[in-house]
Structure formats: structure tokens, C-alpha cells
Amino acid sequence: MLAIYLTQVTPTCSVPARGDYPRDLGEFERRFATAEACRTYLVQLRWPEGVRCPHCGGGKLWPVRQVLCQCAACGHQTSVTAGTIFQDTRTPLPTWFRAMWWVTNQKTGVSALGLQRALGLRSYKTAWAWLHKLRRAMVRPRRDRLTGWVEVDETFVGGVHPGRRGRQTETKALVGVAVQIEGRRLGRIRLQRLLNASGPSLLQFVQDAIEPGSHVHTDGWVGYDPLRRHGYKHRITYLEGQAKTASQLMPHVHQVASLLKRWLLGTHHGAVTHEHLDYYLDEFTFRFNRRHSRSRGKLFYRLVQQAVAVPPAPYESLVKYARMP
Ligand SMILES: [Zn+2]
Fold first, then answer.
1. How far, in Å, from the CA of 23 to the mean position of ligand 1?
2. Sign of the dihedral through C-alpha 86, 88, 90, 93
3. For 149-158, what is the mean pLDDT?
């Protein structure tokens, strides 16, 4: 039985990585119609140097069922999805792939309802959980920090009452915004939810987002005072007493902040809880930093690549703070 099985299946677990991605929907559909094809792609992106048996080190592995690779030498089975966001999924891989293709091809992002409709999923809860799992894969582990010239500011999102600086309000969340400036253009960004606008909180954000030695441009808020002591070249623009507005004096961060707010209101109707905000910020950053990418297929490639590089997020941990509609 096993012998017959092995002769019928090509050893896809050992296919070398090509580092490529589908260019359009037709190519995507032709390529990822079967679980085997999806598994091959996951193997290639997860083990670009080639998959090896963790038990005996053997380099010859056969595909078994949907997500397993079995070592030809010792018989040990390795799961392609274990330790990734697809761990323990009962959904066929092609459905996951369609979700990732759809998510990366919507320029402004997607809502759970949109994903549910696009894939014909019966449950809204499933669509919601999938989106959250995928958002976790939108941040590359150990990603590079911003460098060169970087504008930094904080902004309040959510709620309707304007907050006062330096203190957290009930209805609004404070978000740190860092924008790398490339000539006159906006470069990469980093966003992070902040506890408050105190010195330690802002310093933590800057250290997470920006390489020391970079030029950091902020307004005159006292919370930014520690930057110079921590190896940053700090340029301050005092907003008080200026004829120009804050958005004219620091146009780049203000532009990003207003795009973020418009996105939260538009795509998500402002219905983002503080507890989940970080993941939405990650999604916005993922799309923003790749907005000039000519191929949506490349975004798909990045998302799949990161989906096999981040640990799984069990449903219980996702819904801990959720307010289901
Ligand atoms: Zn082995």
C-alpha cells in the first residue's frame, strides 16, 4: 500500500526553492489548486536551503497526506505547518492560499466580512480569526529599523473626544508614528501603540523603530528629551509661536497619521479595539511599506514567507479581548 502510494507521488518535499510568485489571478489559480502544490510552496519558503529530517538529518523526504513530509531514511514525519500560523488548521491549504492572495490583492485592506464573502466562508468568526492570524504574519520577525532622517510624532486614534497630550484617555489610543524621509518622499514607516507620551514610553518606541545614530526630527515635547542621551541626533521643531501649522512643519508624520485614521475609519469603520490595534497597525505598515510594489504577487510571497516564520496564534488568544459583532 505504502509502496504504491510512494510511486504515485513525486517527492515534492525535496523540490528546490525558486523564490518566485504568481503574477496574476490566473497564474495563482493554476498554480495553487491542490494541497500538494501549496505544501510544496510552504516547504520552499520555510526551508529555502532544502528540508532536512530533524531526526536523522536525511535530505530525502516524501510528502504524506496534506501537510507532512516523511524521511526516506528513518521514517520520521515532519509537519510543514507545525510552528506556523497554519498549525492545527483543519482548512485545506488551497483555501488558506486564496485568503492570502485575496488579502494582499486588496489595496486598502480587508474586513472580516469582506473575506467571508470572497471565500464563501460560512462563519464570520472564522474569517475574523483568519485575518488576525494573517495580520500577525505581516510583521517580519527581527525586521530592520529605520535609518537616516526620521520624523517622529504621536497621534490619537479611535474615539471622538480629542485627548490631551501626556495622558491616556479612556476612548482613544495613543500611537507612535515614525517615518523615514527619502529626499522629499515618504519612506518606510513604523507604528506602535504607546502607553502614554512620557519619556520612557517614547524612548522605547524610538529604540524599537529607529537605528541609533539616525537623525530624529520631533516637535518640542519634553517626552523626546532623552533621545540625544541615547545616541540619536535630535532635531527639534518648536510648534509654539510659529505661523505655520504642525502639519506644515512636520508634514510627513501628519500625512501618515491621517492616512492611518482614514483607513481605520474606512475599511474597519473605526471598530478596532485597543487590544487589537497593534495588529491593525502591523497590517497598515505592511501595506504602506510596499505600496509602490509593482506586483501584488510579491506581497503574497512576503505574506506566505512570514506566515511560516511566525509562531501560531491559537484562537483562544485571539478572542481574549474580542468584541464580536
Ligand atoms: Zn530521518
1. 36
2. positive
3. 92
Alpha-carbon gap, residue 87 to 72, rounded angstroms: 23
Task: Please give the DSSP secondary-structure letter assigned to residue 37.
Answer: H
Q: Of all helices (H) and strands (E), which one includes residue 180? A: strand 173-182
Ligand 1 centroid from CA 62, angstroms:
11
Cα–Cα distance list, 190 to 182, 209, 227 (Å): 15, 6, 17
C-alpha 192/C-alpha 225 separation (Å) is 19
Contacts 24+ apart (CB under 8 A), 35-38: 35/66, 35/67, 35/92, 35/93, 35/94, 36/9, 36/12, 36/63, 37/94, 38/93, 38/94, 38/96, 38/97
Task: Give me the residues paired with residue 62 across strands.
Answer: 70
Q: 184-229, pLDDT tens digit by residue?
A: 889 999 999 998 999 999 999 999 999 999 999 999 999 999 999 9
Q: How far is ligand 1, taken at its centre, from the CA of residue 309, in Å?
A: 22
Query: How far, in Å, from the CA of 200 to the mean position of ligand 1?
Result: 50
pLDDT in tens, 37-77: 898 899 888 888 888 888 898 888 888 877 788 998 999 99
DSSP state of 229: G
Rounded to the nearest angstrom, the distance between the alpha carbon of 59 and the centre of ligand 1 is 8
Q: Of all residues in the chain, what percent are helix, strand and coil, respectively (each to 5)?
A: 40, 15, 40
Q: Distance, CA 61 to ligand 1 centroid (Å)?
A: 8
Q: Report the C-alpha gap between 76 and 177 in whole angstroms.
A: 47
